[in-house]
Amino acid sequence: MTAAAPGHTLLPSTAHALLHRLATAQAEGRAPSMTAALFRDGVPVWSAARGTGPCGPTTQYRIGSITKTLVAALVLRLRDEGRLDLADTLGTHLPQTAPGTEDLTVAQLLAHTGGLSAETPGPWWERTPGTHRPELADILDPDPLRHPPGRRFHYSNPGYALLGALVARLRGRPWQDVLATELLDPLGMTATAPHPEAPHARGWAVHPWADVLQPEPETDTGVMGPAGQLWSTAADLCRWGHALTGAVPEVLRPETTAEMREPASGAAPADGQLAYGLGLQLAGAGGRVLVGHSGSMPGFLAGLWLDDEERSGAVVLTNATSGPAVTRVAADLLRLLAELEPRLPDPWTPLPAGEADPALLALTGTWYWGAAPYGLRLCAQRFLELAPLSGTGRATRLRPEEDGTWRALDGYHTGETLRVERTPDGRPGHLDLGSFVFTREPYGPDAPVPGGVDPEGWRGLPG
């Protein structure tokens, strides 16, 4: 079955190519069912399902670790309200934790850099009821650290259980209730819940050498729930993916979603590699970096991935313990959409009259870092864009601050401050971006270049 949103119907050839990719993945992955959906600018543009049993954009599947993205958002909402700082230690807010976790920071838990064990002590938490581990102290070994905190990435499911407990402690309610009130209800995610509700897919294990099935347990994981308990639908996850772009500021601020999507350490991943931000994974795919999360629980695999360049997202859900590579399928669906029906650029429009500030216009044009030319553009809402005009260089977007400076938003200069240093008569003299000086002419005799300018100025090569 296939469907598209009214008014946003894809070309039949595009819909067929997408369906073919999904059908191939379901057949070759030997998945009992597979459902996929695509959205662009928050609007559903395509969905399809293949297989047996309930399946489709409104059918519930278990989403596993995609749950972590929602828990991370709840933590960051607390931060945005001033209830905590990402540098706070866990023990500051949750003193009843397992020994060895008190000094881990909230940021380390969000980014999986706290060094905590990947899993709980046996039996495996995903296949056993949460009653085996009724308390937080039960989810970690007496010595829970596998690596020195802050030194390296090491994925930790118990770490997100601790974050869920942190949310519950500061809100005074179970994390599931906080989730419903703060995220699910405002976004209209009515089919997302800790337990399955009809219609939902049944989780299966598929025999590796015969076309037969075995049902998987549908466990309530108790205190480990924030690591992967939730069930959801492709339609609901499209709504959540849209919120993760920063397009629903009343739920999650755009600057907060941008923070979630930045690699917590190192650079953006190359093709075939993964990195991790604050609750979100980053995947290199076909020269682009997709942002989202994969998920798995016994009987289910899930993926939610966003393509910022195309302002699109993909959801892929299946009810098999292993087999289909859902992240690859999602990446392929996004690639096909971008290739076959690329997003139209936004129409150019002039700035509103109130933003055509002569003082800002005076900043625009060519500036030089040393002898390298850069262009400075004025954008909507007093934002600036600085980019090299030739060769290689460090481009960045800059957000205006209340004190008359600008804050760099991306690239090498992320987080640095741009200051406009003026001449005695008030004209822009030079720019200072985190100690990088940009002048109106290359190495002018009076330019405030660090280290000074040779007094003889420019010259030909001596004979």
How would you summarize this macromolecular structure in one to three sentences?
With 463 residues, the chain is α+β, with helices and mostly antiparallel strands. It has 10 helices and 20 strands. The strands form 4 sheets. Strands 1-3-2-12-11-10-9-8 form an 8-stranded antiparallel beta sheet, with helices on both faces. Strands 13-14-15-16-17-18-19-20 form an 8-stranded antiparallel beta sheet, with no helix packed on it. Strands 4-7 form a two-stranded antiparallel ribbon.
In whole angstroms, the N-to-C terminal distance is 78 Å
- Helix and strand content put the structural class at alpha+beta
Can you tell me the residue ranges where pLDDT is under 50 for at least 5 consecutive residues? 1-7
Q: Could you name the CATH homologous superfamily of the largest domain? A: DD-peptidase/beta-lactamase superfamily
H/E element string? Answer: EHEEEHHHHHEEEHHEEEEEHHEEEEEEEE
Q: So, CATH architecture of the largest domain? A: 3-Layer(aba) Sandwich
Number of helices: 10
Number of DSSP E strands: 20
Gyration radius (Cα, Å) is 25 Å
What is the CATH topology assignment of the largest domain? Answer: Beta-lactamase
Name the helicity range: 10-25%
**Largest sheet: number of strands, sense, barrel closure:** 8 strands, antiparallel
Q: Overall mean pLDDT score?
A: 93
Total discrete domains: 2
Strand order of the largest sheet: 1-3-2-12-11-10-9-8
Provide the CATH top-level class of the largest domain.
Alpha Beta
